[in-house]
Amino acid sequence: MEILQQILAKKLLKIKAVKLQPANPFTWASGWKSPIYCDNRKTLSYPSLRNFIKLELARTIIENFENVTDIAGVATGAIAQGAMVAEELNLPFVYIRSTPKDHGLENLIEGDLKPGSKVVIIEDLISTGGSSLKAVEAVRNAGCDVIGMVAIFTYGFSIAENQFKDAKVKLITLCNYDAVLDEALRTDYIDEADIKTLQEWRKDPAHWNPK
């Protein structure tokens, strides 16, 4: 029986939400060279997959986080899925900007988040964890309790794992880098020879040299 990580990895690869190009690396906004690129926004264009992810995120929250009162999405990638999860669970929804709005009320958190709320944050992607934990800090600064974060995909970087541990945030993800590699290899999306390159990159992505 397939587990969730395998099922979702297959679905993400099928729509090319995850692309693997060891021979022709991508350049991230950070300047890092990477043999992989994940764009979970693409899942929103596929109703059955969009619904699948919504239900799995909601199920994960129900099974792992008691007494949640509010759902928060991290802008911009997790706004849509976060709102759909909140609708599924019949809970209030807010979203968290990366920086405060530069006009009007200059909000960092959009919506009505009351102090004392117990919040689960939705993310689409975990890389180093920096932007995700800034969202955690914003919610905590609003006088609320972050009881956990649920994300669609993680690269599984040790720096992210350590940062979440230090911040005392429980993180659960639906899919991960290893599951994508396994599925990509099983379906001949990549060759066995590519695996070493992909594994070496994850060990030190900031200094990885594709040459």
Explained architecture:
The chain is of the alpha/beta class and 211 residues long. The protein contains seven helices and ten strands. The protein has helices at 4-14, 47-64, 79-89, 130-141, 158-166, 177-186, 192-203, and strands at 18-20, 26-27, 33-34, 36-38, 70-74, 93-96, 109-110, 118-126, 145-154, 171-176. The chain has a six-stranded mixed sheet. Helix 5 (158-166) links the parallel strand 9 and strand 10 (171-176). It starts with a helix and ends in an 8-residue tail after the last helix.
In short, what is this structure?
The protein has 211 residues and is an alpha/beta fold. The protein has helices at 4-14, 47-64, 79-89, 130-141, 158-166, 177-186, 192-203, and strands at 18-20, 26-27, 33-34, 36-38, 70-74, 93-96, 109-110, 118-126, 145-154, 171-176.
Keywords:
211 residues; alpha/beta; 6-stranded mixed beta sheet; two-stranded antiparallel sheet; 7 helices; 10 strands; 39% helix; 22% strand
